[in-house]
Design a protein that fits this description.
The protein is of the alpha/beta class. The chain has a single domain, classed as Rossmann fold (3-Layer(aba) Sandwich). It is about 50% helix and about 15% strand. The chain has a 5-stranded parallel sheet, sandwiched between helices. Helix 1 crosses helix 8. The radius of gyration is 15 Å and the shape is globular.
Length: about 170
Amino acid sequence: MKPLRIAILGTASSGKTTLAEALARRFDTVWVPEYLREFVDVAQRIPVEADQIHIARKQRAREDEAAPRARRFLFCDTTPLMTAVYSRHYFGGIDAELAVLADAHRRDYDLTLLTAADIPWVADGLQRENEEVSITINRMLHEELAARGIAYVPVGGDADQRIVQAANALAAI
């Protein structure tokens, strides 16, 4: 049986990874880490515009690789849609191939969870975002979701509250 893909979106330091890991433990399944973090750690640099499509493709490929190991749910710590939002912010637009991957979000994910920016912001190594930029990215993410007609479930509060909110949303699908 094909697992339900659960997209977890949000700005830097909004708890996406913590939530993905916790939900995978709770539902005894796997999760897909954010490839951007690995890219930055390995390359020891922030991505440039030409890297955006590679990052989005790799994120999607990692999901496809993990899907056969997933049980009922596959939790995805970000998606190509987030890459598109960052591309729009940092490079002034979204290239055509990245737009296609971002447009597939409604079709490819069975539920989108949106992490609130209501936990303390923590710097993330070479990641270029700061708390001020996170506010802008959050606004842009909401705009992209609305423009693409993507429904989402907001999750906020402490880790336990987020897990309960996400579990309730999962029970409804």
